[in-house]
Amino acid sequence: MTAAIPMAERLRPSTLEDYIGQEHLVGPNGIIRRMIDSGRVNSFILWGPPGVGKTTLARIVASKTEVPFYTLSAVNSGVKDVREVLEKAEKDSRSMFTKGRPILFIDEIHRFNKAQQDSLLSAVERGVITLIGATTENPSFEVIRPLLSRAQVYTLKSLDISGMDRLLQRALENDEILRGRDVEVKEKEALFRFSGGDARKLLNILDLVEQSTPEGEPVIIDDANVTHSLQENPAAYDRNGEMHYDIISAFIKSIRGSDPHAAVYWLARMVAGGEDPKFIARRLVILAAEDIGLANPNALLLANATFDALAKIGWPEGRIILSECAVYLANSPKSNSAYLAIDAALEEVRRSGNLPVPLHLRNAPTQLMKQLGYHEGYKYAHDYSGNYVNQQYLPEELKGREFWFAGNNPQESKMAERLKSLSSDKKHNP
User: How many whole angstroms separate alpha carbon 61 and alpha carbon 69?
Assistant: First the structure.
């Protein structure tokens, strides 16, 4: 009977001590650990990729706080299901035997529509339930604002190499089936690479390798065996939608690599698999800014128009709009200069903190501010030839610092040349 249960379920942690990863949330100073220790758990949403322990963490919270625990999957639950659970929870919350508010865990909460999410608001507001949601999608896009204001969002991260290694050792030591086999771990690179920081996927791969090894023979964990097992069973480790992330990754990388043929193929795989069109369109908008950027600013306009057009046209014709956009982006010149610029600027902000705004750049709406020198000495660009004047815009401590560097493409070369000519032209330097 045990063999029929997937290894990921057999080894699901039941305590924080057995939980691997997310130290920023469940470590000694983690906010969720502090909630559990205090016995006062507030509503929150767990946002992260598959297999990082969102459902497990919700179960541990409920177990440790010893309150009734209800669970719904947004994939197959409607407003009626939500209301039925809320009625049960309200009865529990009034019971003298209940230590705290019941917890309602909603998996894939991003799949709830507005009406379904609206049905949760009153119960959360009145304290009938503590809501714990789990989502692989950005809650800012998929969860209604009133609900977001009532539930803190916590981001979960994929397991790093250290975390995956700990998980592997735990499986070897604690799994009933692996302990009964002769297991030899010779190489881990392919196992960790194919897992991609997904704990469930790692355990499913181990499960697959063990199942494909005949009884009486040693179970060999090495790169060749892992790769062979996955090629023989391409969907065996895709029980919970992990292929969704593999294919979108291939789609994005094909466009970034300027291969329209591969881009359309991976798009077709997603369309045929029933992927959410909004998810695809949103990724195209991000890619247009991140990977094409200033090399072709029209790319972002087209990607955004694609997102809007999908809402108007719907399915199945929306596939044509997505195809047009994917082909256009794949054939566009590429630049990540804007992406690198904002990351460099953010790194500087983290390093130097809140440097003061130079006085001449400050707003001066009051007489006192004017007396303090706010706005004094500011040069209005439109008063100068070419609508440009050389002036210090960065904090004094960062004078001369550059964050944006032109990409190697005609569009940005023109920008860089113009910037150079403006800064070197004496008529702009009074």
Answer: 10
